[in-house]
Amino acid sequence: MASIAVLTPADVREQRLKRFTPHEQQPRPSIPSSSSTIDSEALFHLGFDPEAVGRALVSTRGDAAAALKVLQRQADGVSKEKAAPAEEAIDDEARQLELALKMSLEPAKKAPRPSTSSSGANPLWQPPRYLPAGHSVERGSKTLSLVESVRVRDGGYAWQAASAFLDTGNQAITLIDPVFAARHAIYKPDAAAALLGTATGFGQAERWQTIRGVVPGASTRAPVVTVALKVRDQEMTIQAAVSEMHGHDLLLGADVIARLFEAGFRLGAGSM
Length: 272
Prior knowledge:
It is a single chain. By secondary structure, the chain is an alpha/beta fold. The protein is built from 8 helices and 9 strands. It has helices spanning 9-24, 40-43, 50-59, 64-105, 137-140, 178-183, 189-196, 254-262; strands spanning 143-144, 147-153, 159-166, 174-176, 207-212, 219-231, 234-242, 250-252, 266-267. A hairpin with a 2-residue loop joins strand 6 (219-231) and strand 7.
């Protein structure tokens, strides 16, 4: 592979000076070796500007030798003034070239990666997530357990805590334990009849539902009442059959579970 010659800023400056020299520098007037023998007429033949020669003779009162010195000083000053801008331009170009060469030889620097930690995260990369009012870990979780702590509204329109079992095989209707229903005045027909008479519908069954158990052919008739239920942050009004059960206050059926699935909830793998 052929080698490539790299010019230094000094080499570039020297080449630039050579280019400027024939255009910028004018040939100096030929001056006799002995200025004492020169006269006023000869000054006009040495290449100086005639007006400059005239001004020099006036300023020296006709002394040709002194006027020649004045003309020489003026010529040297003009040459330096013309050379100064060119020198400055060349120096500035050389500095820029030196900087460009230095930057091209430096290894490329990698841009810093944005921090992924929560303490130093850029808010434009990791904007704060929106959380609804009253958000909590329990309400924010979309995974349901097989047994959930729910709330049921009692006869006094207050929320009461209850234990509910999610029965995915129950396609009929949600069940509520008669002891829980009587304790919270949800279904207590005897007490309501004693206070208000048998003609009142308070505390009575709204309708009756046939409940079939796990034993083939076995069934029972159960009263149905309207219940206000809250599971996690989902509030709903359902009809529940009052039927005896053991271990839980409610047995949630497909009527409730389907609504929870529509709201984005799911059952955990260990609950299936």
